[in-house]
Amino acid sequence: MCGVAEGAYVRTVAGWEILACKACGFTYTPRVRQSTATELDLPAGYVPIWRARHRQIYRLLEDRLAPGDLIVDVGAGFAELGRIVQAAGRYRYVGFEPSNSIARHAAARGIAVRPELFTSTSLREPASAVVLDNVIEHVADPRALLRACTEALRPGGVLVVIVPNRHDVRQLIPSWRDREHWIPPEHINYFTASSLAWAMQCAGVRPHPFGFAALGVRDIKYWPRALLELVRVYPFGLNMYGVKSASR
Questions:
Q1: What 3-state class would DSSP assign to 44?
Q2: With contact defined as beta carbons under 8 Å apart, do 84 and 214 qualify?
Q3: What is the b/e burial string over 98-131, where b = at least 16 CB atoms within 10 angstroms of the residue's CB?
Q4: What does residue 175 show for φ and ψ, rounded to 5 degrees?
Q5: Helices 80-88 and 52-62, axial angle in degrees (round to 10)
Q6: For the chain, what is the largest distance between any 2 Cα atoms, rounded to a whole number of angstroms?
Q7: CA–CA separation, 192 vs 170, rounded Å?
Q8: How far, CA to CA in Å, does 163 sit from each of 101, 117, 134, 171, 238?
Q9: What mean pLDDT do residues 39-56 have?
Q10: Per-residue confidence at 120, pLDDT binned at 50, 70, 90?
Q11: From the candidate CATH numbers 3.40.1280.10, 3.40.50.300, 3.40.50.150, 1.20.1250.20, the one assigned to the domain spanning 51-172+186-243
Q12: Rounded CA gap, 120 and 213, in Å?
């Protein structure tokens, strides 16, 4: 992450070696697939799994955007956030999803998703918000993607980043750890709160945890987590956002 290529051995998972940078401790696998997009053979009538974080992202943005603003969802997946945005009718939405099979499924449900990789020149106008929901743990150069997303924002625009947490307490459960965490070549980057914050700062935004800003009454079970985030304790995944300064 800091640009130092030399890493110390951490472990090998299914033939994939995982290292930790000797300079900053960032954990990664140096070997990646040629394409990180995953194609799926989806059955007819497949319904994507809905996650509470989709609602929470929307709630976070509601207090920071004006009607008609553009929300860009990078690595949109099945575009569940887009379904919320388009149903509310308050903002514009476009998703970018490099997996053709997943992008087609989202488009068939009437959600605006483009089957392509996102770059800083993908948009004809600056975005008011760019969302990276469980994306940068999959890409070969997360810093470059964060920079591209920040460059695509207008001054005052919001960058939302969600990634798995290298120190997630659920790793104490071996079945969860092997199914959700150490899963190269899907996850090739492993972030801590400090490494994610540093990467976002390098991209030009000051990171903040979601905290209570993303939560409503329906999210009461997430309130203890928000309290811990206020004191910079992150027991589960990392949910961060930052605002692009007017000077950039």
A1: coil
A2: no
A3: bbeebbebbbebebbbbbebbeeebbeebbbbbb
A4: -65, -40
A5: 50
A6: 49
A7: 14
A8: 23, 19, 5, 15, 5
A9: 86
A10: confident
A11: 3.40.50.150
A12: 28
CA 35 – CA 98 distance, rounded (Å): 9
**Average per-residue pLDDT in the chain?**
92
Tokens of 197: 């914050």
H/E run at residue 71: strand 70-74
- The domain locations on the chain are 51-172+186-243
pLDDT: which is higher, 245 or 193: 193
Residue type at position 206: R
Closest listed residue to residue 182, CA positions, set 45, 95, 173:
173
More confident site: 247 or 114: 114
Structure tokens at 12: 């090998």
Q: What average pLDDT does the segment 93-109 reach? A: 93
